[in-house]
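Collaborator request, handled under Task 6.
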Amino acid sequence: MAATGQEKRPLGEDSSAPASESTGEAPTKRARNGNAEGNGATPPREGIPDEFDKLIGGAGDPLPGNDEFEALIGSSVPSAEPGLDRGNDSVPAEEIVRRQFAEKLESLGAIGEEELPGILTTIREEVAKWSPPARWRTTALVLAYLARSSRLTRNAFVAADGMPLLGGVLQDGVAHLESSGASERQEAGMRVMACLLCLRALPIGRATMWEHRMTVGKAFDKLHRWCGKEKSALAAELRAPTTALCRRWRGQPKPAQQEASQEQRALRKKVVDILLQGLAGVDNSPASPAVPQPSPGRLPISSSAAELEAALFGHHGGATAEYRQHARMLRSNLALAGNAGLRARVLEGEISAQELVALDSSHLAPELLQEQRRKAERKVLAQSVVEKLKPIRMDSNDRLAYNAGTAPPLSPAPNDKEDSPKNSTTDNKPTPVMMPMEPPPTPFRDGLADGGHVNFHRQGLGEDAPLPPPTPDVMATPAPEEDSEEAEVIRWLSRPM
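Structure tokens returned to the collaborator:
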């Protein structure tokens, strides 16, 4: 592969660049200038406990095998980058295929729902056989394109078990940030930025992140702690999106699996099962349909049910009686045969879990039933409105028919020819003439005369008086930035290696 302008050192080798707390540039600026940054110091590798649950708040049961998993990802950083033939000037075949794949993605502009299955198959079957640098950069490029894709495409990525792919890129990028030199950190920083952009765009919450805590959560926790202790431009650039994601997930209610109390967790799991039946369109009747298979463009039913239960738990502030009653109401309304459209809107992310919890039973009813109710309300309203009402006069013979609360009838418009007095003298009075008002003293009143010359005599100024300052022109509205953050990352990851 072609070098990036600087000779890459084996990972773990101390860099010759002097250590500094503020050296380097932001990743987007380095993408334009191509300058590598970093202090080059190699921090010692230590085992890091699983603290993702502490990062987003709350704690769950410890999972077995954390030490082995830490050892696995801690030793997964290769000592050298295989596949780079520095003695051969020709472009390797792997790099040619990688560039062709990047050009294909560029021609698409954004990954569609139809192209996503083929792209994921290529990543898992063909790209997985490439060398680590080419494999991780190509996968990160796909994640950057997903960040600018449609909502249905992002849903299909989560439904197609794409979170482990994202977690693999994030784990490798964080490992290089902690133990590599300046050039490797620059490469890893752009891959990590692609993961953060994709995480920000995916329609997932705290419950979904808890399900993928081993693949994505642990690496995100390491990245958050590295950004907090590292003093460099790269860390500052990655710290902003990392902190924003952490705040978003921490502000959401903790999922049922993260509940510390065994009794509380068992109760909340039952509510998750109830909501899952509602999202699947299954009720307690024997004629209820079977659980439908997951379709492209829709989130997994299990993840959506977990997110909905967490939102319901936070809405009621705990597992109260209203919480359980609300869950049964949601299940009964969602499972109705005529509510297939509502279930689809929830699974496609058009209606969030918080929005669904805020709806009452009248808004959760099927659309046909809501239309029938609206027609009945309009009919009752039309019957209660009296279009022609003429109140009974006080001098009427029917005194009992008089209603004091009835408004008097509208007076007809007077006819000028019949109602006006014939001998009126008002027509002979002259119409008063309004005097013109003095215009306000503006610079355009006496300032500019014919030809654009200033009339100093009308302004009371002499010939030698200085000219007044010209009226400033209205500044044009600044245009939006030409390149978004996603486009900058895509351009950097698409360049030759």
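The cover message to the collaborator said: "Residues 27-252+486-494 form one domain. The chain has a mean pLDDT of 74. Please let us know whether this matches your experimental observations."
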